[in-house]
Amino acid sequence: MSAATALKNILPLFGYVFLAWLIVVGVMYVLQRGMMYLPDTRHFGPAEFYGIEGMREVTIVTEDGLELGAFFMPPPDENAATLVLFHGNAGHIGHRVLKAATFHMFGMGVLLVEYRGYGGNPGSPTEDGLYMDGRAAMDFLIRRENIAPEKIVLYGESLGSGIAVQMATEFPAAAMVLETPFTSTGNLAAEIYPFIPARLLVKDRYDNIKKISKIKEMPLLILHGTEDGVVPFRHGEKLFAAANDPKEFAAVEGANHNNLFDFPETAQKLFGFLQRYGLAQSPLNMPGFRR
After folding, report:
1. Does residue 44 register a pLDDT over 90?
2. What is the 3-state secondary structure (H, E, C) of the chain?
3. Residue among 87, 158, 204, 224 flagged as catalytic
4. Is 207 considered catalytic here?
């Protein structure tokens, strides 16, 4: 068989492979939000169900008219900080109640933000939509609860890091904590799907690496496990390198994406950071603490 004949026989095969690739890319592009967001759509339940003293369900209203349920634990006094928690992709705020109660035990108010499409809330998640949810949460604290932005700590878990970083570009918050953050979803998708031009195709980019250098004079703590298989450790390192001072990086040796708080040093570094900036108290110093 001549080379020309062989080439003639192979070219159609390449055409079929290319067509199949285009179909796969097209399907992934159309369905990407369904692949990207993994909401637990069940209602997170009444606050009383969780048995956390002082926690109540509140409604925050977004600029596009959605009424979103959330949990709120008011700060113990007017001088205390309030942490607004933007949770990660899976589950709903009910799965973060014990975490929120820990912050409250350290003398902080806590707002557990539930996104559109999560926890029984109306709407569907998108990048712009979740930013609107974040702004509505900040508006709730500032306008309805009379909490100054300078008394608010932004806390973003994984997906929530994108919302926290965006809010940090819009509000002069007291500090920001990012737990297992990514540089951008485009970069993350390119690592997961190296066979497609993911950076060009991703609709919801959450471009943390581009935004974080614009945030100035806001204390930053990044928490990241060295064995994170969902958002690799290098993402946290790159974000930290791009961020302005003051900043701290807590590398949790051996931790993966979901078990950071199984390691005692995580809480030690987190609450040590908050206490250094006067944003959290020691439970030993809290009124009503019983030994």
Report:
1. no
2. CCHHHHHHHHHHHHHHHHHHHHHHHHHHHHHHHHHHCCECCCCCCCHHHHCCCCCEEEEEECCCCCEEEEEEECCCCCCCCEEEEECCCCECHHHHHHHHHHHHHCCCEEEEECCCCCCCCCCCCCHHHHHHHHHHHHHHHHHHCCCCHHHEEEEEECHHHHHHHHHHHHCCCCEEEEECCCCCHHHHHHHHCCCCCHHHHCCCCCCHHHHHHHCCCCCEEEEEECCCCCCCHHHHHHHHHHCCCCEEEEEECCCCCCCHHHCHHHHHHHHHHHHHCCCCCCHHHCCCCCC
3. 158
4. no
